[in-house]
Amino acid sequence: MTNAPSEDRLIYDWAAAGEPQEPKRLAMLDDETLRDGLQSPSVTDPPTDVKVKILHLMNDLGIETADVGLPGAGPRQRDAVERLCREIADSRLNIKANCAARTMIVDIQPIADVVQKTGVPIEACVFIGSSPIRQYAEEWDLQHVLRHTKEAVEFAVREGLDVMYVTEDTIRAKPDDLRILMSAGVEAGAKRLCLCDTVGAAVPQGVRNLVTWVGQLLDELGVAGEVGIDWHGHRDRGLDVANTLAAVEAGATRVHGTALGIGERVGNTPMEQLLVNLRLLGWRDDDLSCLPEYVQTVSQAVGVPIPVNTPIIGKDAFRTATGVHAAAVIKAKRKGQAWLADRVYSGVPASWIGREQEIEVGHMSGGSNVLFFLRARGLPDTPEVVEAVLAAAKKSGQLLTEEEIRETVRSVAGTS
Fold first, then answer.
1. E-strand spans in 239-354?
2. Residues 95 and 231 in one domain
3. Same domain, 145 and 212
4. Same domain, 261 and 326
5. Contacts of 369 (CB under 8 A, 6+ apart)
6. Within this chain, do residues 369 and 256 fall inside the same structural domain, yes or no?
7. Is the same domain home to 294 and 324?
8. Are residues 227 and 367 in the same domain?
């Protein structure tokens, strides 16, 4: 079709109508699937060979860093971390490794040991609770948290490790406490500060306020641009993706996620949704063709099924049997513009992840659904056949399977 209108003329972007919300700099991604993701109470810890495959898929997606485990948790985790680090070196992967650790030498030393054995740098992500409610429950005072912070960060730095200082439950911590703790972490040598919504309590405005405040603190300390800001969010209120995007807007330079959002309780920010949204916003431009394989591999490895209505990678993400929707997609396809058919009834281009818009036949379908289905498979599409298939669909409580449609066609047209 000639002189077709451009995409920006056909889709108005209200997000661009007000004040620009572009990030100060493009954010990196940290994949927590193999550590925080495996803390889900319902997952299976997969064999190391499978973790290696997942690591390769993370690398293929352009993810910059991966938490490869908590080696202080025991020999199984330590061996897996060592194997994954050797894989990074042997396969010359671009992805970098980091490891979680409590603010305790017993957790940090195993990280340093793996670095010595493999020669692969590992960022130590040392964490401790920072909110008043956590301190009260643990019977800590601020001096206890401060002492552990200094000792842990200083020890890790002496061992030659880059350090990300993680204040758990940051979103519910007091500014005065955070100022003391974060200042101490930076002074001790931390190169990144990780702000956490550990229990999924945040809303986007709170995230913006917190990230902006930390940015101002780093400026006051004279290390803005030298010390990075991470955001780590959970999905208890279902605001995980929105919160993470708000963190990027406010200045976070790295954000965390897990495949399928697996993690503690109801999980973390889903990495697949982050990747797609960041590309849709023009904030990253990753090749997402292996995204379904990444999610399916993790799903099978940890024993968490993919719900059919999961955004982007669910079975139904790009399927429709509704007459009005299908008619619009079919008309778009007839115009010969692939992007038009991919966007007219979809906010996410299926082609990005190697899929396409699928038209099915069900009780909400119209004749256009049936015609498209039949013609796509080279089946007879006479009015009698279309009428018979549509009649069968209207009687059914669910979508007709391909075999059911073919059986109806055989009964009317006498074909195989």
1. 254-257, 319-320
2. yes
3. yes
4. no
5. 321, 323, 326, 327, 359, 360, 361, 362
6. no
7. no
8. no
SS3 state of residue 194: strand
Helices 48-60, 75-90: axis angle to 10 degrees equals: 40
The pTM of the full predicted model, rounded to 2 decimals, is 0.93
Q: What is the pLDDT of residues 83-92, one digit of tens each?
A: 999 999 999 9
Quote the DSSP letter at residue 3: T
The beta strand positions in 225-365, using DSSP E, are 228-233, 254-257, 319-320, 358-359
- pLDDT tens-digit series, residues 263-316: 999 999 999 999 999 999 999 999 999 999 999 999 999 999 999 999 999 999
C-alpha distances in Å from residue 232, one per residue of 67, 260, 267? 12, 15, 11
Cα(225)–Cα(100) distance, integer angstroms: 24
Angle at 304 between CA 265 and CA 61, to 5 degrees: 95
- Non-local (6+) Cβ contacts of 116 within 8 A are none
Tens digit of pLDDT for each residue in 322-373? 889 888 988 988 888 888 999 999 999 999 999 999 999 999 999 999 998 9
pLDDT single digits (tens) 110-127 = 999 999 999 999 999 999
38 domain residue, yes or no: yes
- The full length of the chain comes to 416
Of 122, 204, 121, 213, residue with least CA distance to 167: 213
| Model confidence pLDDT, tens digit, residues 10-42 | 877 777 777 766 776 789 999 999 999 999 999
Q: Is residue 308 part of a domain?
A: no
pLDDT value, residue 25 = 72
Alpha-carbon distances of 289 from 308, 313, 319, 341, 355, rounded to whole Å: 20, 12, 19, 19, 9
Alpha carbon distance 362, 349 (integer Å): 24
Domain CATH for 276: 3.20.20.70
59, part of any domain: yes
Domain end marker among 274, 302, 330: 302
Considering only CA atoms, which of 222, 290, 250, 315 is closest in space to residue 56? 290
Domain enclosing residue 108, as ranges? 24-302
Q: Across all residues in the chain, what is the average pLDDT?
A: 94
Q: How far is residue 349 CA from its own chain's centroid?
A: 17
Q: How many domains does the chain have?
A: 2
Helix axes 204-220, 240-250, angle to 10 degrees: 30
Distance between CA atoms of residues 151 and 144, nearest Å: 11
